[in-house]
Amino acid sequence: MHSIDMDLVEMTLDVMKYTIERISNVTPELGAPKKEEELFAMVGETITPSGIGGETAFKLFKDVLVKATVPIDHPRHLAFVPAAPTRAAIMFDLVTSASSIHGAYWMEGAGGIFCENQAMKWLVSLTGLPKDAFGVFTSGGTAANLSALVAAREDWRSRDEKHKAVKGLLLTSDGAHSSIQAMAKVMDTDLEMVLCNGENLTGAELSKTIANLSKEDRERLFAVVATGGTTNAGIIDQLDTIAEICEKENVWFHVDCAYGGGALAAPSVRHLFNGIEKADSITIDPHKWLFSPYDCGAVIYKDMELAKNAHSQKGSYLEIFKDDGAHGFNPADYQIQLTRRIRGMPLWFSLAMHGTEKYRDSIERGIELAKIAANKIKERDYLELVRPASLSVVLYRRIGWTPDQYRDWTYKNHREGIALVTPTKWKTNGEDETISRFCFINPDTTEADIDLILDTMR
Ligand SMILES: Cc1ncc(COP(=O)(O)O)c(C=O)c1O
Fold first, then answer.
1. Strands 281-284, 393-398: pairing kind
2. Which of 225, 368, 439, 453 is least surrounded by Cβ atoms within 10 Å, i.e. has the fewest?
3. In whole angstroms, how far apart are CA 75 and each of 97, 395, 412?
């Protein structure tokens, strides 16, 4: 199994051939899922005592299994938050795997961690946080949010013995991503949502909510989570006024920019994030709008020591990593994971190869595509914009359609390999309305792609 022979050479060539073909195909087949029984009927049992052989397994993957997946980088995949990793980043993901680097401690991963830290330095510079702020790459936005909020809670507990015996409380807006609610559950923390009715959370609303908390709840409040680009609508909370309230109330200020973080590099919208430089922690997902392959999130802290106090693991077999002889930056100290893939390396290589200006331009293109789509919607009498495009998200309605019609249209377009665009909900006059949503990430998406999709709603 570990020997180096002709089979290995052939497999390497097959893998490289597949990879080159796949990454140079800008319109891969828009695959669709099949039932597990159907897939089993097509491929049979693949795990056997003597193995089915690499050639057979790879053929099953290429001919059957990959076709039951939706390529996230398809230019007409505009659902959820899609992705469009650069070809350089994908190639370097292969290099990352081949290099077998343990990304937890400098002693083992120095050269790789150096690469990650170069990319991180650029990310931190986009936020405007003070000099000593820094961060680490995580498996995604959920893990980054959890890491940041655990650091916040530990800091709050360390400041008063009484806090150790009570459940903490988080405040966020109803536009926050579902991972905030999910991670509050993981942390056994209470979460209260400020209802914003489709607007952004402001310092004034936050202040009012805090003033209405009972004395006990005010004691339990340890962090506020603002969103820098809501997933559903691209809305950016009023970060500067929220920062002021957090400072006044002495609570941790976390900004979840998992989706919108890429836009920090876009001069046309950077001002919308003013106030982010006052955050205690920030989440940004390079696997969303910074063109990294899955999976790659990032958590950034104003004060790295607070993150270290919360996350640094201790164990007799880990002591050597903390010794002066092994001195260096240890990513394991700043987030929830110990053993970790050095997942910032593909981003580093792509950034180093292309430079930050190409990143800026590709992100601006996503914002421009959203504006172009909004104009095309306005030009069609059977469509209506629900709200102005925000970052790269466009919400619009097909006049007269019921929720079932949106659903049937989604399935039909997917089945026919035209596009994956899914419905969402929006509060209209206090009622949930089913509408359609675009999220642009991929600079390969064309105006003709947008026309093609909108025309199928006629
Ligand atoms: C604002 C926001 N936060 C957090 C997440 C969760 O990130 P991940 O899916 O990388 O865990 C998402 C994902 O879409 C998001 O948009």
1. unpaired
2. 368
3. 27, 18, 18
